[in-house]
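Entry for the shared binder. Reason: the reviewer on the internal report wants the predicted structure included alongside the sequence.
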Amino acid sequence: MKTSKITIRQLFGISEQILNGANIEIKGRKGAGKTSIIDAIRFALTHNSERDWVIKNGADEGEIIIETDSGLTIDRKARKGKVDAISVKENLTTVNKPETFLKSIITPLQLNPVEFTQMSKADQNRAILDLIEFDWDMDWIREKFGEIPQGVDYSQNILQILNDIQSDKGAYFLSRQDINREIRHKLAFISDIAKDIPDGYQAEKWRNYDLSAQYTELMKRRDKNGKIERAKAFRDSYNNKLRGLEANREIAVSAASQAIATERDNLNRLIAEREAEIRAARDKLASLDAKFEDKKKIAQSEFETAKAKLDKDTGVAEQFMNLTPEPTDELAEEIKTAEAMMKHLNEYDRMSAMRSELEGLKAKSDEYTEKIELARSLPAEILETATLPIEGLTVRDGIPLIHGLPVSNRSDGEKLELCVDIAVHNPSGLKIILIDGAEKLDDDSRERLYTKCREKGVQFIATRTTNDNELIVTEL
């Protein structure tokens, strides 16, 4: 679809100007009114203008009528003191929602391609990506990612949005980085804890081990065995027996003292090695003196009790004379092992808790990785189904490439030719391109652009600043 006639009245300083459907170049000096014709056509198609005055000075109403070879007529009026009017008819049938319809037959790059050549790289890329037709909304984002990713500008093109989501500066990447750092920290901490825990450590066995009951059993056996030994030695003199009791007392006190000293040394070492257990170890350390005194009292009490019984009940020895002593070494070794193993329970529990936390952290890290990879794979899926405005268009890392090269690698002339490709992309669109400022191109580039428009069947209306005093409209 191309224009067959354009009529401009009382707009942008133009009293009246009529153009047919030919390709034209408007030449003249600066201020001659060349751009006014371009601005009027843009106004007809978009209802936008950067000028303060749209209606010609002295008039109450301005109008532009665009007729096409397909039977479409666009009639836009600008009126002082009234709302502007727009009428769009297709073969005499009024088109509903005319502004929406006009957006469907034209792209911004067709109406101002020279401005496109002067945009920054980022704006040029955004303009190209905005032409990709893909129906999406925030529900589509939520469906794909299970949420709305944070820290993303959702006013951008969907491909730029996906690029920001997967970026190494995006929320997913940074969150995964934090989690992986925490995972490494916990693994190092677990490794540090594990080196002090014996291989094959059976936490539940030592957690449920009744140390008090076993210790009581050991003391019971030792007491019984002591009685047996004393009974057998009862034949010795009373003084020998008494010295034996005294020796037992001293041995018991010495053993308790040595055990307490060993335990004190162990606890002091644990305090130095594990700050996390300082408070518990200090509390236990503080109780050792009292514990020693208790054991000392027990030893003294046992001595006094034994001595009293020796004095009073010398006949008791007869009960134990023929008894066989019960073994205590194995039980004592078991208790010693249990005490050593039970000291590892707190650290083992901390290690187990961290391993459970690690599973959650790794799962979250994997989830972020999946979402990052999803954001990286979706552009390819989108481009398979989206309507692409240009042949050879691909997107890599959020940057549009045309036949493998970014838009910024093209010359100004090639960028204008790109706008021609965009103009012919929409089969039902208006095949027109407005080139305001063709003098910015060298002669070869300008002629190549005009030739491409003709070959592609795109009507062009171009302005070129020359030294001509009068406005010259030339059909090409």
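Summary line for the report: The first strand starts at residue 3 and ends at 11.
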